[in-house]
Prior knowledge:
Blueprint: H1 15-41, H2 44-70, H3 84-96
Amino acid sequence: MANIYVAASATWNGKALKKAKKDVSAFDLQIKNFAKTFGAAFSARALMRFSKSAVNAFAADEKAAKALNANKGAALVVAGSNDVNVQIIVNAINEAVGAGGKLS
């Protein structure tokens, strides 16, 4: 088999180095933007807003539970889901508030 030789030469023009610097700068900017987004998502302010909304939701649930207990036998909870687990919980709530399906 014959040997093939290829002679190649290159000249330095600095374009590759400039492109690499540009790419590294763009990557650095993307990392900084990610860090800002990540920091905002888990900031103390976001955590405080979530905590307040959780407390408000709990208060609303507590108010609904008191209303159901105050109207035992006259209240009925209806689930807006066909999920079996949700239906089981709703049935238990109806049993607790005396909505056992009495016919008059």
